[in-house]
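Sample intake sheet
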Amino acid sequence: IVFDRYQPSIEVRDKHKNVLPVSKHRATQLKYNRFEKATRAFNEYWQAHTVTLDDKPVVPFVKRKFNDTLELGGRFYGGFQRIPSKDRERFKIDNSVTRELDYSSIHLAILYAWEGMPLNYLEAYAMEGYERDTIKAITLRALNIESVSSLSRSISLSANPQNKEKYRTYKADRAIYDLRRAKGLACKAPFKPKWIKAFIEGIPSDTIADDLVYDFLEKHSAIKAHIGSPDIGLKLQAVDSEIMALLLDNLRLENIPALPVHDSIIVIRKHKIKARAVMAQSFEKITGFSAQIKTK
């Protein structure tokens, strides 16, 4: 598998996913060139390494994708990320078994860091009267919403039993599509209703949306001002992608090949301890606080 060095390794896209031209502003061009150079170095490094799934080659190359400007988004995307997580467990790098290491609650931790506070990881999803999985699902949605009222609407929509069943059907069809596409097989994407994007998994059918939102905001009062603020999800992605870029570059310099999966990395099992240490260092360098890292 050969990396096409003539294709850009990063791109800036508008809300319709059209690629935008690079600004002629000198500071923006310098930043673009720095990101391009680092991402290209990552892709070229992978030409000396291999990834396989059940002895079949997996393309390890990535592209960083920003939204409207270089200050929004910027995550690393690659075809291997569309392979279901259970199948990714069977990835081999250079014929060696792998492990996936994950930053816990990374966006919540970044928000607390912005307020000069460490996140209490043990209590991050603990709220009296609610299941942990429910609060975790709410948190993920709350950090990517346009307004607090839209969060309440999403909860109500997601508590509807009929919507739950429709969502399960769509998710199953989508998983089949993603797997076939990742293997290069002919396939057609399932129809995606507009409301699917707002659906939150794990919301009990008897949930009262306004009560849950109120309790959630009270729990996280320190970061309340950020929830529902403009482009908050993309701003958080810009920070987590900065952490990931630093992490991948440092691992490359340590000659540790790693595959990024948004807020986690896949590495050879024997590199797990060293990779965990580099993850912690990268997070602290960007945020000033400690990370919690777990093995998936």
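Comment: Residues 75 and 241 are 5 Å apart (CA to CA). Strands lie at 10-13, 51-53, 56-57, 63-67, 69-77, 91-93, 96-103, 258-260, 264-268, 293-295.
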